[in-house]
Design goal:
Length: 220
């Protein structure tokens, strides 16, 4: 837990405190011609954002259907705890991200004067000027739908360790796809996605300590 957490805190501090977020967003904005040209592009908005969100829901429902069908297959009982864990953990990370977005008061790039919006740039925990309303962009919500699946590292790993690494790669890949697509649209800074994957990883780690530990490990 501590290695990823410390790395994430350092990365967010560098990206926000030393201007890394703005540097990345400036280059993306310039590459798109001084506007968020991909904000409403069918690939970024329709395919990755809208359909990506739907496919994430479908994946979770399929997981739930597999879990419900387990009692009919006694040989598959070893999957019961990992599947219970995955059903909870893949939701917990994104829900925590959604809750954090409600009080962190951070704007999206497309809201900022720097990128054609109306608001000044305000870092995390800085005083927000009155009259601008709440910002709800930190951590990144859409990428958390992908990063929530980093829980596969623990869920599948409880069956076979090698499967856990494959699951981790899948979760990180989907989260990266969702996150980069949203950055190209002007919806998030890089630090927003770093925070998102960190929250999802910590949620997955914490829940596996509660739901996947064997009685021997708990006593030890």
């Amino acid at each position: 837990m501590w290695g990823p957490l410390c790395a994430a805190v350092a990365a967010i501090a560098l990206l926000q405190g030393l201007g890394g977020d703005l540097w990345v967003a400036d280059h993306l904005y310039a590459a798109e011609g001084g506007r968020w040209a991909l904000e409403h592009h069918w690939i970024t908005e329709t395919l990755v954002h809208q359909w990506g969100k739907r496919l994430d829901i479908v994946a979770w429902l399929l997981l739930a259907m597999v879990r419900v069908s387990l009692p009919r297959h006694p040989a598959a009982r070893a999957w019961a705890r990992p599947l219970n864990y995955l059903l909870v953990a893949t939701l917990a990370g994104p829900l925590l991200v959604s809750w954090m977005k409600s009080w962190t008061d951070v704007d999206c790039p497309w809201d900022l004067v720097r990128y054609g919006g109306l608001h000044p740039y305000v870092e995390l925990f800085q005083h927000r000027p009155a009259g601008y309303g709440p910002g709800q962009c930190f951590p990144a919500g859409h990428s958390s739908a992908g990063y929530g699946w980093v829980a596969l590292f623990f869920g599948l790993g409880a069956i076979k360790p090698r499967w856990g690494w494959i699951g981790l790669a899948a979760g990180l890949s989907v989260g990266l796809l969702f996150g980069i697509s949203q950055q190209l649209r002007g919806a998030h800074f890089l630090s927003h996605d770093v925070a998102s994957v960190t929250v999802c990883w910590l949620a997955a780690w914490g829940l596996q300590r509660l739901m996947l530990r064997t009685s021997k490990e708990a006593r030890g």
